[in-house]
Amino acid sequence: MKLKYNIFVLNSLLITSAFASYLLNHELIGKISEAEVIAMSTIPNNQELCHKKNHELNNQDEINILARTCHEVVGNVEILKDYQDKYVDLSDIEKIHGDLSVHDCSQIISLNAPRLDTIGGGIKIKDLTSLVSITVPSLQNVHNIEFVTLPLLKDININRDIEQLDKLIISDTSLQSIESFQNVKKVNTLEINNNRYLANIDLHVDIVNEKLHIYSNADQAQVNFAKLSSTGDLSIRNAGSFNLNNLEYINKSLDIIENSIDQINLTKLKKVVGTVAIIDNDNLKDVNCNNLTHIEGGLLIINNDNLKNMDFLPSIHTIGGAIQIDGTFHKVTFEKLKVIKGGANFRSQSDKFNCTELLEPLMERHVIRGENLTCSSNMKNQSNLNQSNVTKISYNKTKTGKATGMKESMSSQTEITKSDSSAPSTTENSSKTGKVKSKKNSGLKLTSINIYGIGIWFLITFIFFSMF
């Protein structure tokens, strides 16, 4: 009897221990499930914070929340124009898969992004009238850089290893140097204008695909593109000197207008797809384009008062448009010219220019294919040529300067559509949380059933041993 009783006690202890262990196990499971519910309910919130089409920020506190949560931000980051602080500090943000835009914030003094290494779109900072410095020292990957209408901007600290850009625009700043961009080798659009203290523009760019415009910077600005071999539309204005000694191809037009240069050396230039315009360069005395053979557009050489001898195109044999040469020149020669597809207009205020000497060889070789031909000078006893059906080739002086430059630069602004379509919806979040909770509830129901079954088994065992 005593043995049976001991067996009963031992069996009871084992059952009780198993039961206690079961309850403890399920208690821990209950706690883990609760933590999982909390975690799963917060994950969509982080996704919503880090993944938006536009992250619109009103103050530094909102930037801090974004930076602490998201080292990698999907979507555009936009500092709104009613931004309330003087500083923008992106702190721990490393990647932005969109644009970084700051527009129309007159109170911002500095922008700092110490760890930002990638911008999927562009950095666009425009119309910040108090901004003094921009610091993005780790930036390696970016498509567009646009710094426009930042009249107090004096300091840019950007990683100098950037070699390729779609667009680089620096307009209306107080910068004295753009060395941060010195190693850019390939760019589609490059515009540097209206930077009144920028006296030296020295870049190592090799290829500009679409547009290279330099104008209205410091007086007598020195422009150096010594490695440039090919460019799209090229316009240089208001410069004191420029170096384009390696340039071979201009795939659109060439404008050299209103500079204080005394010489132009384009010794390697072979072809210009558009029009060549050399206009209003008062100090220009010498031009060298010895290897230029094709100009597929027109040729305009106008009001260069010190350029007396137009003999700088000895290899040219095709001009696809019209010619207009106007000034105080003494002589014009085209030794190898075979065809001028448009008309021709030569007008000199000099008493040394001889129309007959220029035109007779051209007319004998049937070089001028257009119907319109005029020539005039102040040489005595000369019959000026004026063919019938003359069409005047007019030139309206291009106005440069701050207002025009700003207007051209501002036309490149793009608007960012504001929507949050990519963020997870609240309905989806609540449904996910609901599923987790329902799993937990069914687990608790299962626990209750198991406890009830163990209790019945314990009672049957007790009755069984009591019978002996």
TrEMBL record:
Subcellular location: Cell membrane
Taxonomic placement: Eukaryota, Fungi, Dikarya, Ascomycota, Saccharomycotina
Membrane topology note: Lipid-anchor; GPI-anchor
InterPro entries xref list: CWI-Assembly_Regulator, Rcpt_L-dom_sf
UniProt key word Glycoprotein: yes
TM ranges: 449-467
Polar residues bias locations: 409-433
GO cellular component assignments: cell surface; fungal-type cell wall; plasma membrane; side of membrane
Superkingdom of source: Eukaryota
Family to which this protein belongs: Belongs to the SPS2 family.
Swiss-Prot/TrEMBL GO biological process terms: ascospore wall assembly
Name of the protein described by the UniProt record: Receptor L-domain domain-containing protein
Main subcellular location of this protein, as a coarse class: membrane
Signal peptide range in chain numbering: 1-20
Region (Disordered): 400-438
Keyword annotations of the record: Cell membrane, Glycoprotein, GPI-anchor, Lipoprotein, Membrane, Signal, Transmembrane, Transmembrane helix
